[in-house]
Structures are given as C-alpha cells and as structure tokens.
C-alpha cells in the first residue's frame, strides 16, 4: 500500500485542524451548564445518543483526513487514559491540551525550538503538580464523597448512593455496576473477589461500549498449565453447551489453535466463553488458583498429577453467579463454594499469617517475611471479601445505559478522592496554581515560553465553564480571584461564588493531576513531531462500479 509523508509545519497544521475540530465539540460539555451533544448511532435504525460525557463525544468523532484524524486521535487517547484511571476530568484534559497546543504552535511558527518548549512545559508541569498536591485536603468525609460523586455524575442521588457504599464497605471496597430492571437504583452486598488479570484477547468482549466481558451463571475451569490445542477443551465445551451456560477459563494461557477456535466460537455465538490468567505469579500462583477453586466449588486440574482438561467432568468445574472481565481485572461474584470449606481454608491462612508474624528477629529474611505476609493478606482478603453491586435503574434502556456510564465515572472520581484528597473544583485550583510558576523562567528563552504556555492554559477550563454558562470569562476570573478564601469557586449552575465545600464544587487531586499531566504529555508529543507517515487508500477498484447498475441487475431473491 502506498504511503504519504508530510513534514514540519504542514504536518502540524493538519494535525491541529483535527485537534481543533474535536476540542470544539467536546468542550461544549464542560461544567454543569454545558449542553448535550447528539451523536448519530452507528446503526441508523436506532435512536441517536445524547451525551454530556467528554470521552463519549471524543470517541464518536472520526475524520476523513487521515492527518487531521491523527490529531483528533491523540486527544481521544488522552481522554480515554484519564477516564480509565480517574473516571472524570476527560473534558478538562482536552480543553487544556487544545489551549496548550494552539499557544505552542504559535511559538513554533515564530521560530521557537519545539524541544526547548517541551522542556519548559515539563518543568511547569512538575511545579504545578507539586502545588496542587500541597493544596489537597482529605476527601474521605461523607459530605465530600456526596459532593464529588454528584459533580461527576450530575445527579445528587448518585452521590448519596456512593457515599452509602463507602460507609457500608469501607475505603478500599470493590463495587460492580449492572444494568437494572426498574426505575430505581438498587444496592446489595455480595461475596466476591477481584484480581488483576484481564482477558487474554479483546475478542472476548461482550459490551463494546464499556469494553468488558460479562458472564451470567458461568462454569469455571481451573488449569495450572497452558492450553494450546483445541482438543484439550472440546469435551468441556460440549458439557457447557449442553447445560446452556457460559464458561470462564482460568489457565496459565490460551494460545495457538485453542485461542483461535475459542474466539471464533465466541464471536459466532456457539459458546459464551472468556479466558483469563490466574492471579499472582511464580510459585504463589498455584495457591491463589486453589483459593479461587474453593471459593467457586471447583477443583484445580494439576498437569503434574495427570489431571488434564480433556479428562475433566462437570463436577470439576466451579460456579459463580456472575463474572465481569475487563482488560486489567477479573471479578467473580457469588461463588458457589461450600461455606464450611471456605471457612476452614480461611482459618488455615489466618493461622499461617499468625505464625509468620510471630517469627523472631533473624528467622527468615526480612524482605521474604514481608512478601509472605503481603501474599497471605491478599489471599485472606480474596476469600473473606465482600463487594457491592449497584443495579442502575432508569425509565428506558437508553437512559439506563447512559446513567450506568455516569455512575461508573462518579465511582472512579470517589475512589480518586479517597486516594489523594480533593481540591476546589471548576477550574479554580488550576487558576490559582499559576502562582507556582512565578519565578520559573527556564534555562533559555524558548523554555521560558514553554512555561508561559502552561501558565496561560491553566485558566482554560474555568474560561470554558464561564462561556458555557453564558458569562464573560474575564469577569468570572476577576471575581473568583477577588474572593478572600483559598477554596473559593464559581458555581456555574447558579452563577454564584463561594466556598468549595459549601457549594459542593470539588475535584479529586488525582483527576486534576492526570488531566494536566496527560495534556502536557500529548502536546509535547505533537509539537516535537517533524514528519507524519500515513497510508493512501487505493480506490481504483471502485472506479468502474455503478451502484444503480448493480442494483438493477441483481437477481430477485424471491424468484
């Protein structure tokens, strides 16, 4: 396939076109006064999507110009990265990146060195992040959780619901979200476990919007080796299909023909299956696998003992009420294990934990003892842990799915607030963080310009919130800076000013930090790009194609 190579200013100009088109659509949703964006559904027969979520709007935009689309795609990646890690702040990250890119490109067009500008921006990034961390306050108070969740979801009822979850399950709790069947949200606590291994192939995804694979009432296969041939698991597939239930495979890996055939069966709907790796690593992995087997009422097939998948029976498989798998984690809810066996295994682990703690100084290496304690704590948490499940309600299926996305974002924001604290929101703290850049000039004039690019752009989120509220951004900034409080904010929904905690306008430190860091990182990447290589689509095969002639000569299927 032929390629096109574009250099320097022309490449940057076409990339900034895509960046500008995407940012203009996304920034409309910033703040509580921001309007919605209507997105045409991929299936023309379905209703359009109404969204005020920045990452949803960004992912819906794809441009015909491949160079411009590269610029837009870079912003989409920024939004998705912030969304995965923090849940909120996606629109702020795009607004920051857009503002910085425009200012940086102006400087480059005037003859500044892109590499030096990037160094100045990185220098400013470190100073601003240190400043916002120093301003942070604890975010674990119930009132703060309600405020953060309400702001992220734009619904106060969600804020109170998530505060209830934290009060019931604690700070480091696990929460899963499901599509509800009624108008009201439902919250319950179930036995479950989550560990950090995702699906081995993205083709197992069942919900493309959320990029997760969900299995209802699955069987669970545990195997301590790699499965590389389809003959090893065909008998199990037959048993599971006969029972008309899905299958979760937890094995060292699924490769070659076994993976290919399994994926094809999943895509064609012949069998619902997801393959993941076991938790932990090395010698500890087998013990963790055995814990999961006890939790689900299954048995680990050990290759060293001659237990292979092709010889397994339906009784060797574990069972669960529900399994949710994404790219980074696996969650097993409602395992069908025997409570007595689980209690006995927990008692053994706690006894082992006490023995390690009771070791005398010099008995075993300090680092070895610490690793062993951490591993035992993790295993005890897996077997004894409970997690929350929220069934998100709504009037229609479209509303339920839209609210599910907002609740997910709100929960990530609450988790971020519990991790690193909160700040005055609505762009107020970024505006005040400009004071951290006073006296930072860089090693040369171009680095100083990079610092100035960041300083000028820190006001961009607040300015856009004011514009969306129909007010003058300069007037809003002046009134906000005149407030005699470090936590003064502008509340766009009521067009009023006051204390952040009184108004409920709070942002998690993690959200602000990631939005700023990702924005500066992506702009640094764009301004230091000197050439872009893209493929040229070959359309010669369509030159003689006449759709009207093709339609007129097509045979009537009813004949």
Explain briefly what this protein structure is.
The chain is of the alpha/beta class. It has helices at 8-26, 54-59, 66-86, 90-109, 114-135, 142-153, 156-169, 234-243, 256-267, 284-296, 339-357, 366-384, 397-420, 428-432, 445-457, 460-468, 473-481, 500-503, 509-527, 547-553; strands spanning 3-7, 37-39, 49-51, 175-179, 186-195, 213-216, 219-223, 226-227, 247-250, 253-254, 273-276, 300-301, 318-325, 330-335, 386-392, 422-424, 488-491, 496-499, 506-508, 531-535.
Overview of this protein structure:
The structure is a single chain. This protein has helices spanning 8-26, 54-59, 66-86, 90-109, 114-135, 142-153, 156-169, 234-243, 256-267, 284-296, 339-357, 366-384, 397-420, 428-432, 445-457, 460-468, 473-481, 500-503, 509-527, 547-553; strands at residues 3-7, 37-39, 49-51, 175-179, 186-195, 213-216, 219-223, 226-227, 247-250, 253-254, 273-276, 300-301, 318-325, 330-335, 386-392, 422-424, 488-491, 496-499, 506-508, 531-535. The protein is α/β, with parallel strands linked by helices and 559 residues long. It has 3 domains: 3-134 and 435-466 and 513-535, GroEL-like equatorial domain (GROEL, domain 1), CATH 1.10.560; 138-185 and 393-420, GROEL, domain 2, CATH 3.30.260; 191-385, GroEL. The strands form 6 sheets. Strands 4, 5, 6, 7, 9, 11, 12, 13, 14 and 15 form a 10-stranded mixed sheet that branches. It has a two-stranded antiparallel sheet with strand order 1-20. A two-stranded antiparallel sheet has the order 2-3. Strand 13 (318-325) and strand 14 (330-335) form a beta hairpin. The protein is globular. The two termini are 42 Å apart. The model has no long low-confidence stretch (mean pLDDT 86).
């Amino acid at each position: 396939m032929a390629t096109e190579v574009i250099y320097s200013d022309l490449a940057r100009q076409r990339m900034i076109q895509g960046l500008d088109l995407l940012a203009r659509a996304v920034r409309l949703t910033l703040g509580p006064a921001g309007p919605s964006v209507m997105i045409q559904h991929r299936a023309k027969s379905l209703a359009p999507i109404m969204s005020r979520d920045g990452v949803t709007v960004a992912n819906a935009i794809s441009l015909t110009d491949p160079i411009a689309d590269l610029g837009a795609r870079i912003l989409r990646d920024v939004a998705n990265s912030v969304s995965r890690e923090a849940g909120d702040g996606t629109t702020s990250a795009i607004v920051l990146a857009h503002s910085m890119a425009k200012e940086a490109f102006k400087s480059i067009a005037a003859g500044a060195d892109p590499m030096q500008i990037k160094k100045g921006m990185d220098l400013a990034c470190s100073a601003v992040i240190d400043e916002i961390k120093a301003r942070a306050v604890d975010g674990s108070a119930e009132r703060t959780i309600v405020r953060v969740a309400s702001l992220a979801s734009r619904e106060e009822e969600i804020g109170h619901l998530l505060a209830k979850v934290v009060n019931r399950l604690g700070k480091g709790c696990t929460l899963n979200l499901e599509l509800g069947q009624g108008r009201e949200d439902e919250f319950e606590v179930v036995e479950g476990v989550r560990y950090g291994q995702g699906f081995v192939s993205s083709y197992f995804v069942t919900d493309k919007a959320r990029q997760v694979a969900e299995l209802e009432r699955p069987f669970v296969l545990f195997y301590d080796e790699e499965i590389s041939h389809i003959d090893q698991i065909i008998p199990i597939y037959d048993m599971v299909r006969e029972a008309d239930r899905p299958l979760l495979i937890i094995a060292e890996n699924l490769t070659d023909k076994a993976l290919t055939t399994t994926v094809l069966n999943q895509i064609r709907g012949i069998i619902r299956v997801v393959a993941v790796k076991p938790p932990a690593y090395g010698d500890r992995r087998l013990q963790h696998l055995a814990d999961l087997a006890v939790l689900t009422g299954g048995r680990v097939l050990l290759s060293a003992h001659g237990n292979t998948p092709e010889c397994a029976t339906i009784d060797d498989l574990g069972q669960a009420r529900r399994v949710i798998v994404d790219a980074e984690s696996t969650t097993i809810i409602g395992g069908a294990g025997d409570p007595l066996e689980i209690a006995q295994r927990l008692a053994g682990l706690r006894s082992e934990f006490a023995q390690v703690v009771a070791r005398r100084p010099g008995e075993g290496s300090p680092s070895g003892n610490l690793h062993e304690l951490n591993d035992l704590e993790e295993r005890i948490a897996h077997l004894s842990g409970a997690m929350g499940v929220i069934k998100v309600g709504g009037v229609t299926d479209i509303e339920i799915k839209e609210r599910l996305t907002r609740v997910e974002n709100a929960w990530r924001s609450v988790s971020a607030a519990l991790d690193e604290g909160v700040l005055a929101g609505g762009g107020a703290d970024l505006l005040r963080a400009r004071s951290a850049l006073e006296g930072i000039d860089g090693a040369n004039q171009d680095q100083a310009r990079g610092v100035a690019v960041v300083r000028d752009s820190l006001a961009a989120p607040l300015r856009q919130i004011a514009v969306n509220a129909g007010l003058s951004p300069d007037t809003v900034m002046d009134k906000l800076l005149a407030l005699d409080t470090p936590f003064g904010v502008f509340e766009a929904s009521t067009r009023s000013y006051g204390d952040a905690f009184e108004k409920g306008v709070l942002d998690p430190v993690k959200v602000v930090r990631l939005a700023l860091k990702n924005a500066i990182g992506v702009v640094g990447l764009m301004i230091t790009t000197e050439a872009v290589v893209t493929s040229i689509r070959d359309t010669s095969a369509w030159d003689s194609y006449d759709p009207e002639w093709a339609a007129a000569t097509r045979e009537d299927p009813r004949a």
